[in-house]
């Protein structure tokens, strides 16, 4: 009985540490929308919805983190190279792939 209780408690603890996935919508709005538009349709930056949003995850991550597009070409300024920067909510820590993936997933929901 006691063992079961401990096992269940441990599982619950693990589940709460793994916790919620990053909020792609909030991350996008805070860090990307100013250039790519509230709805990802582009502004000073190119549209992402229906374009880069459809790239393979690895290519999208590479573009956002390292500033290299799907053709292997460097992305020009002012597109930030996010591996050398930080999302507003991350207080100086470079973005994780999970955060970038969450942004791409959010872009998928936009039409
Ligand atoms: C300060 C403006 C600015 C911000 C902020 C910005 N971008 Fe960009 N982004 C650009 C510009 C300009 C380009 C085009 C660069 C080029 O063509 O060389 C670009 C290009 C891209 C591309 C490649 C698109 C393509 O079709 O080639 C992706 C993907 C991208 N941005 C994602 C993001 C994401 C995700 C964020 C937020 C985490 C973000 N950008 C924030 C300006 C910005």
From TrEMBL:
Keywords, sorted A to Z: Heme, Iron, Metal-binding, Signal
Chain ranges of the Cytochrome c domain: 19-111
Top-rank lineage group of the source organism: Bacteria
Signal peptide range in chain numbering: 1-19
GO molecular function: electron transfer activity; heme binding; metal ion binding
InterPro entries xref list: Cyt_c-like_dom, Cyt_c-like_dom_sf
UniProt keyword Heme, yes or no: yes
Name this polypeptide is given: Cytochrome c
Organism: Caballeronia choica
Lineage start: Bacteria, Pseudomonadati, Pseudomonadota, Betaproteobacteria, Burkholderiales
């Amino acid at each position: 009985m006691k063992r079961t209780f401990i096992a269940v408690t441990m599982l619950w603890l693990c589940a709460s540490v793994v916790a919620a996935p990053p909020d792609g919508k909030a991350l996008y709005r805070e860090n990307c929308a100013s250039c790519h538009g509230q709805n990802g349709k582009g502004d000073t930056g190119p549209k992402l919805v229906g374009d880069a949003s459809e790239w393979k995850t690895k290519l999208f991550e590479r573009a956002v983190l390292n500033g290299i597009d799907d053709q292997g070409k460097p992305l020009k300024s002012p597109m930030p190279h996010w591996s050398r920067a930080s999302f507003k909510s991350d207080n100086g820590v470079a973005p994780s792939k999970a955060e970038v993936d969450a942004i791409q997933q959010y872009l998928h929901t936009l039409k």
